[in-house]
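User: I'm writing a short methods note and want a consistent example. For RNase H type-1 domain-containing protein, I'll paste the sequence; you return only the structure tokens, no commentary, since I'll be parsing the reply automatically.
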Amino acid sequence: MIIQIDSMETVIAIQNEAHNELDSTLIRRIHQNLSRVRHWGIRHIPREDNRETDGIAKQFKERRKGLHVF
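Assistant:
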């Protein structure tokens, strides 16, 4: 699994397994989930290169708002 994200702060926080000031419940939970994946990597990408993916994610989010499960 390859994770690409446009937040360098997040990349550093996830890469660091040692506790630091960025350590949070969310980061610990991400590490727990990633420990179940055999091979993974994370890398920073410029925000400009992430626009298309961000647009797709926003479309999905908008669709979920209209989704009702009965």
